[in-house]
Structures are given as structure tokens and as C-alpha cells.
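Two entries, shown back to back:
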Amino acid sequence: MGYELSGNTLERDIPALLPLEAPAVDGDRHPALGVIADWARNYLCCPHAELGRNGPVCPFVPGALQKQLLFATVYEDPGIDVDDIKTILLREMERFIKLDPVSGNEAQFKSLMVMFPQLSVDDLDMIEVAQAELQKHFVPNGLMVGEFHSGPPQKGGLWNSAFRPLYSPVPMLVIRHMVPTDLLFLKDSAQLFREYVQIYGNAVPERFRAQFEEAAERFGMTTNPDENAPQAAPRIIDALDAAGLTYRVHCHDNYPLPIRVPKDFADALGYAVGRITKTLFLKSRDDARYYLVICSMDKRVDLRGLAAKLGTGRLELAPLADLQRLVGYPPTSVTPIAVAGIPVFMDETLFQFPTVLTGSGVPRVEIEIAPADLRASCAAQILAMA
């Protein structure tokens, strides 16, 4: 099951990926999946005396299990080494991004557990070595990769440094979307801290403001501690201000009720859910052209019909590496604002609303702007999308 490895070359199909608690079909469910499902329910979803705070060990897991957004896959190839693990994780990163949901608040619950049950106790350090080297690839994409094994890893908890929370009965690396509190995992590396600031700007949880400022001073970076400053990617704010456009910044965490899905955000604003947009970054398979497409979050785009209208070949979501290189925003916070050199198309139905919400380049923060101003900010062409 999994890849056969020859050096660092992946020679077989990617192994199956299923929601963690999906039922077995014809006995194809790997035993490790059952072990980890029990561990998730009975460890991650539960309080722990040494945790240092109330609530479950991982507050995201109960919601992820309920929504069936906790995915897993198993690799058990003999002779696997650190380079093989890194190669596998980089490929799984691409698969993670394309898993539904690909955008919106619900995507924050999505996680992918990449398991290596064949690793012996003597080989567990490979999980930690691979994780440390992979972070530089994941963090710029708004993603985190975490290490888990039975050791457990030496990293202490955020609320009790003596507690070692990364225990797992099966060795694995876990992919998830970054959240603002990940500052505490990234503040000791100049490279990773700069990537964090590039994504979140000054949108830092107030209880961690002191650690943020200390890291910024240590690495010679200037920050803006003004609580009233716009909490969005600086390049977006600069572009909107330079164009003299009117806009408003909304931070989901400033609302009294939890915002987990687009409807929660629409309800908090008193808006129709159609006013919340998503921006798809698409690539033509035939000629490698790229497009940004803006439409309502609740609209399903017919990519075949859209390709015909654009006069191009088959369209698909562009790879994560292309998103990072050409757009530079995390997958859950894409917007066409301040993106150069990529044609933008905007669904004509968005113009029925006085304002719409678009990504800000920062997860859980969105820009409210008039549709005409959004169009002007990115020179979008209007298109009827079925």
C-alpha cells in the first residue's frame, strides 16, 4: 500500500485517501486508520490534566470529525528514509489543497494525516527531521505540518511547557491550514516568522502580542501595533488606498458568535450568502494559461462551460506551487486585488449587491467593497457564469 520507492522516485499511484471514520469497503481499511480514529476521539477530543487549559487537546478536531474533514492516508513501504518522507509530504500538500472544501471558513477544519506505521522506534526521529525541513515549504502557503509519534516528540504544549502533546500511537505528519495562534510555533525562526507576517500582517491574537513584538525586534522587523490598523495583507491595503477606493475590513474573530462556514459570516453581517465571494485560481491544461475567477461562494462553476467562453482548453485548479509563485496568497484567502499579470473574470450576478466580500490575503479576514470598485481594482472582465 502506498508508493514503491527507488531512491527518491515515486513509482506507484498515490494511496487511497478517506475521511478518518469512513467505513471499510471489502476489508480495505488499514488497521492504522482504526487505531488513529480511536486516538482522535479519545485523546485529541478530550481534556487532559496536563494541558494547562480547559477544553480538548486539539479544539479543532471535534468539529473536523463531525464535518468529516479529517482525512488520512497510509504509507508502509520498506526502507523509507527522510528524503522519501519529504517527497511524499510535498506531493500530499498538493492533494490537500485540492480536497473539498478548498476555500471558505470550513476549509480551516480540514486536516490530512499522512501515516507511516512501518517506522520502528529507532526511526521515529525521521518524522521530526522531515517536519523541521518541510516547514519552509508549507508556511509560505498558509499551511502547517505537524509531527506525531509515540516518543512523543519533545515539543512542549503552548499552555504547559512540561506537557508533550504530540503523542500518537502511529507515526505520522499532519497537514492543516495555518491559524493566527501558530505564531507560537514560528516565532523562533526568522524565515518562518517573516512568512507568518507576510500572511497575517498585524492580525495577531492580542494575548500573543508581546511574543510577536519580541520576535519582530529580534529579527529586525518593524511592526504596527495599532489595534485599529487594517488586519489584512499590507499589499492589498496599499493597492486599495493608492486607488482611492472605499472598503471595510472584517475580522471573523471580532464577531460574538463563531464563524465556521460562509453562512455564519453572512448571518453575522445580515447579508445574503451570495455577497461572500470566492476567487478561483485556474489553469488551462492545454496551453498553461492562468485565470482568476470571482463568483459567489455558493455558486458551483461549470469549468467546461467556462473554458468554452474563454476560448481555452480544459480548466482545473492551478497547483499550489503556482498559487504561491504567481498570486502569493494562502489558499483560503485568495483575492484578485494586487495580483499582476493574470486576467480576472467576474460573475455578472455580483453586481446586484451594493457590496461584496473578497479575500484579504489573511485567513479569517475579508474585504468588503462595492462590486464596481472590486472590478476596477483588478481590471476584471464581466462574464455570465451559469
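entry 2 starts here
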Amino acid sequence: MQHKILVVDDETDVVDMLVINLRAVGFQVIPVEDGATALKKARSDLPSLIILDLMLPGMSGLEICKVLKGDIATRHIPIIMLTAKGEEVDKIVGLELGADDYVTKPFSPRELILRVNRSLRRGKDKVPSVEKLSIGELVLDHTRHEVLVKNEPIDLTATEFRLLALLMERRGRVQGRDRLLNDVWGYESIIDTRTVDTHVRRLREKLGTLANYVETVRGVGYRISENEPAV
């Protein structure tokens, strides 16, 4: 199957460069230059991956990311953000909203293609060995992409879902922040571990009364308790 890549950028030279290089390695490319068209194309074409510039006219890349990751029909689509140098805050916010990766401009086409392939492979390879995980009153169902807290569904972003699934699959084992960045976000080196802490904080907020299922191991990382915690 030929993967469809939606490229969203208002810089014509960047779009042309991406179209040429992505098509050269076998991808079908859908280029758009504004946020409204990007949302329309994402919903109608359901691309395999979206390359999304943060600085767009009318609707920012962050707003687009938030809408797509909040829609059950598009939340599964990996998003690679294109950011200008110095937009550190926007990078972190984008990752918190559910973006899968980012590339800083200027970038090499080769590097971007490697990241595209890695994001597509990560989505394909992460087939769960167990379809449903449960710890007490916390249930994660891979087939339904659903998390239940005391039999009530909670709304998680795609990244929050992956993070919780990984912690539940490795129950009782401490996961360092750098390990989580690698396994959840696909980074091979530490980019900024603050995004891990932010995701864990937001995950705990959504777990509500079951927040203490996720334990902090000071100076190391996080784990889900081997024994069912008291609520």
C-alpha cells in the first residue's frame, strides 16, 4: 500500500522540496498551504501521516493538531511538526497535544524521511500482545482504543493512551524519562524530559480517583504499582 502523506506548509519552496523528496521514495503526497484546507483533507483523505508547519495563516499548526487529536476519526494519524529555531515552547505544547515528533527548520530531506518512516513503522509495529489490560478498576482496551475508570470512559490523547498502555504493560517496572521518550515518542536521545512529566501530570488528572496508580520514583521516572494501590 502506498502511504499518503499530507504536507501542510505555507512556504512554497518547502512544500515543493517535500513533495519532490517524498514522491522520490514512493509516497503519495497531498500538499496544502492553510489550516482550513488541512483539516478538510485530513478528514476526507485520512492520510497515513501529516507533516504540519506550526506557523500557518489563519489557523496555527497547534490549533490544527489539537482538533485532529481530539477527533476520534483522525487522532490515530501521526503528526510530525515543522518548527522554526527557538520555538521551544511551541514544540513542547505540540507534543503535549499529541504530536508524534518534530523537525526544526532548516532540515535535511533525508532526516525528515527517516522520521516519517520511523513514525509509520512505530504505528505498525506496536501491535499489543494483550488486547485488554486491567488493574483493579482501571481498564485499557486496545481494540476499542478505550480506557475505563470505574466503568466510565475517559478521554485520552493518542500519546496519553500510548503512555498509559506502556506503563500498564510493564507494571511494577520503573520506566526512566529517557526510556519513555524513546518508547512512547520514538526519540533515541533525551530531547526534553519535561514533556514526559507534563503528560504524566495530565494523565493523572484524567485518571481522577485512580491517579495514585501511577507512581513517581524520584530521580528516575514512573511506574504503575505492582500491587493495586489503595484508592
